[in-house]
Specification:
The chain is an alpha+beta fold. The protein contains 2 helices and 4 strands, in the order E-E-E-H-E-H. Helices cover 27% and strands 22% of the residues.
C-alpha cells in the first residue's frame, strides 16, 4: 500500500541545525534542484529518513581544512509504503511513465 506524496520541503542544512522530516519506514523519496526542478536523486528504500540523511549533497571532506563547497539548493518529498516491495513496484511504474513521456517528447 502506497500513501500520497508529501509536499516539497527544502533539503535541510546541518550547519543551520535543520532536520529531515521523513517516515522511518519503507517508501520512496525524490530530491530535486529547487531552481530548475531537475532530478537530483530518487529511490525506493527500507527507511526513507535514513536514506535521505545519507545522501551526499556536498563535496566537503571531514578531514580537509578548506572552505565548504557551495551546497546546491535542493528540495525533497517522500511517500511512505507498507513494504519495500510496494515502494519498488511504485518506483518502477514511475520510471516507466517518465521513460514513456520522454520518448514521446523527443
Amino acid at each position: 500500500m502506497i500513501s500520497t506524496w508529501s509536499e516539497w520541503k527544502r533539503y535541510p542544512r546541518a550547519a543551520r541545525g535543520e532536520n529531515i522530516e521523513a517516515p522511518i519506514s519503507p517508501g520512496l523519496y525524490e530530491v530535486r534542484f529547487a531552481g530548475s526542478g531537475a532530478l537530483h536523486s530518487f529511490g525506493a528504500v527500507d527507511n526513507v529518513a535514513q536514506a535521505l540523511s545519507m545522501l551526499s549533497v556536498s563535496s566537503k571532506s571531514w578531514f580537509a581544512r578548506r572552505e565548504p563547497a557551495e551546497i546546491p539548493d535542493l528540495e525533497y518529498r517522500t511517500c511512505a509504503s507498507s513494504s519495500r516491495a510496494d515502494a519498488k513496484a511504485a518506483a518502477e511504474r514511475m520510471i516507466g511513465r517518465r521513460e514513456t513521456y520522454m520518448s514521446g517528447a523527443a
